[in-house]
Amino acid sequence: MGFVRRRRNKGKRGRLMGDVTPAVRVMIEVLCHAAKADGQIDDREVSVIANIIPQLTGTPVSREIVAEMARLADPRLSPSGFKAFGKGLRSEQRELIVQSALMVVSADGQVSPKEQAFISGLVQGLEITRDRFDFLVGALKAA
Prior knowledge:
By secondary structure, the protein is mainly α. The chain has a single domain, classed as TerB-like. The protein is 72% helix and 0% strand. It has helices at 3-17, 22-36, 43-57, 63-72, 79-85, 91-105, 113-125, 130-142. The radius of gyration is 14 Å and the shape is globular. The model has no long low-confidence stretch (mean pLDDT 87).
């Protein structure tokens, strides 16, 4: 995907989100990128995102907007792209984003190598330690 298309799609995603807080914006962006990480957007992933966002943020978002944002997401992010997601977020917010992304990539019952790479890039970009990541994965499995 070329630079101009990525920039244009980012603008479209921003307009779709409307007037939300920066933390909500990042949460939606990350989860839509996670949904597209393997190159396919599964309806179960869209449903998980549409359900998670209002539960965690109090901000409703329609399945249609989530599906369109996921379609516009770039499945290949650079390390700086992952790092940008964490800018200005507290540790608990970054961890919540990782947990939510894990829920999205596992929504279809399997986690592909591309989705694993996305999660790895996200964890590194958000500066989540290996021990903390293992804890987050364990908490999800226990739930």
